[in-house]
Design goal:
Two copies of one chain form a homodimer.
Chain A: E1 4-10, E2 14-21, E3 24-25, E4 31-34, H1 41-50, E5 59-64, E6 68-69, E7 72-74, E8 81-83, H2 84-91, E9 95-100, H3 101-108, E10 117-121, E11 132-137, E12 141-149, E13 152-154, H4 170-183, H5 188-191, H6 194-208, H7 216-224, H8 228-252, E14 258-261, H9 263-268, H10 277-282, E15 296-299, H11 304-319
Parallel strand pairs in A: 1-5, 5-9, 11-14, 14-15
Antiparallel strand pairs in A: 1-2, 2-3, 2-4, 6-7, 7-8, 10-15, 11-12, 12-13
Helix pairs in contact in A: 1-2, 3-11, 6-8, 7-8
InterPro entries (chains A, B): ATPase_NBD, Bacterial_glucokinase, Glucokinase
EC number (chains A, B): 2.7.1.2
GO cellular component, one term (chains A, B): cytosol
Amino acid sequence: MPHHSIVADVGGTNTRVAIALDGQVAPDSIQKFANAGHESLTEILTAYRKDHDVVKFEQVAVAIAGPVRDGQGCLTNLDWTIDCASLTRATGAPDAHVLNDLQAQAHAVGSLAPASVEDIQTGQNASPEAAHLVVGIGTGFNSAVAYQAPGGTLVPPAESGHATLPVSTADQFAFAEYLRSRFGHAAIEDALSGRGLGHCHDWFCHQVGHPIGAKSAQVFAAAAAGDQMAKDSINLFSCILGTVLGDLALTTLPFGGIYLVGGMSRAITPWLGQTGFEAAWQDKGRFGPFLDQFPIRLVTDDYAALTGCASFLEKLRVAH
Amino acid sequence: MPHHSIVADVGGTNTRVAIALDGQVAPDSIQKFANAGHESLTEILTAYRKDHDVVKFEQVAVAIAGPVRDGQGCLTNLDWTIDCASLTRATGAPDAHVLNDLQAQAHAVGSLAPASVEDIQTGQNASPEAAHLVVGIGTGFNSAVAYQAPGGTLVPPAESGHATLPVSTADQFAFAEYLRSRFGHAAIEDALSGRGLGHCHDWFCHQVGHPIGAKSAQVFAAAAAGDQMAKDSINLFSCILGTVLGDLALTTLPFGGIYLVGGMSRAITPWLGQTGFEAAWQDKGRFGPFLDQFPIRLVTDDYAALTGCASFLEKLRVAH
């Protein structure tokens, strides 16, 4: 008899729920809910379970866009708190886990289909035990590292998007000052997120007195149509991305590769070759060439966080 | 019969070698060698072993100030390459390991005597499984995190000192530009190291046309004697330290505490209360209060890297 788990990916806007059979997400079980119409995750999971009431779930894992500590977490951009006891009540699964969404993405790395990964920079081959860094750029920014430890894959949580925005040029520093004047602080995710690309564009508009407030999709569309200010915004975003990825690579040494995930990662990748991304990535003085060994890859699978939850639960189950 | 290991801590200038008995460093076995008089670590270890030729060593672990990959490493500031095979030849120990020195320091955290740890900031209590971040400030800058994984303590390597120097004010940006003009890049360790405090002082001297080139010990002495430029240099160092520790805390979430090690950590700690350190540490926008939960501690034990090597070997031995 297959082992059934329930997995969910709770973003700032939507929640995806699915069933995993023996560690594999069942594609036709995936269901998407708008958070706006619901009071809590419990309500969504209860509704989902009602549609699958013949199934007995042994485990549940939920990936959330927010900090997790001691099995409990709250969403950064939504007033929901999620803990293991409420997950068990909503799903009937006795074994419940809350993961940060980037932790879930990092657990997915070993299980991704080759078709859902694209090379951005090839790097060097590494041993199967090498660490993977996953960087998520979407509504916010965060990262997580998957380490192959003797007892299994270890993925510690992180909140790296709230670290100080690094700047390398006078223009970038002026941009950071602009962010500080608007938000009181210039964090990485104020530049590297959907909002962040909007802020990059706002900064160029602000300098020439144009109205601000374009969404990231509008900036990409304008750049595709040849608009210089939109292209400059994409270049600023890309250069900062190069700097930040280089800093994270030095801090975590992901010899197994850097995996970019999230909507903004997919949207920015086609532009990287036309920008200062690579120069910024290598701008680490005598440690610049050291960075060449780290491959950078794009994950195009929308459901990687669900795959990661399923993979995490399966590894736990096999270990016990 | 006790289990004998040989452990060593190879810095840029000196190498310390000791014997560990059942995972404990024997204090009277510690011997210090100046690297300058020796061709290689092999030569030092061979000399040390000659003095202890009645002992049969089962294991050897060496902590080095430089990047380590797949059991081999090279010193960042000295032309020595160190691998497991040469350690076995020099010591006779069949089980050989090369660690980055910060990895070794991180393995020491659980074995430090209470007398060799001082509170800088108390933080909140955490579970025994919580991660520890060790930050080394001395000749260079680096960090490592100790994670309690199901299979034992995992301490991944890092080279965080070569990441981009974060700046939060116009003065700090001007300082970073000064570093870039001198060294081609402004890395964290160009500010946060012995040399780094010298660079902070150089920057203030440069602005008023004074000669540059004071050593960190001279800056501390001048500040103690009331010299304003020396005090400003210490303040600049401390503010950048606050920013960098906050960034590393967000990237690694060390709920078990941040442990500062190295000569510069000890030298700067008494000054932190008179500087902008705490304000810089908390300057993370809405994530500022989140940082209050992380304790910050100073490690005053000079031999913590040796303790860490011994602890690492003992954990391996017990696991097998």
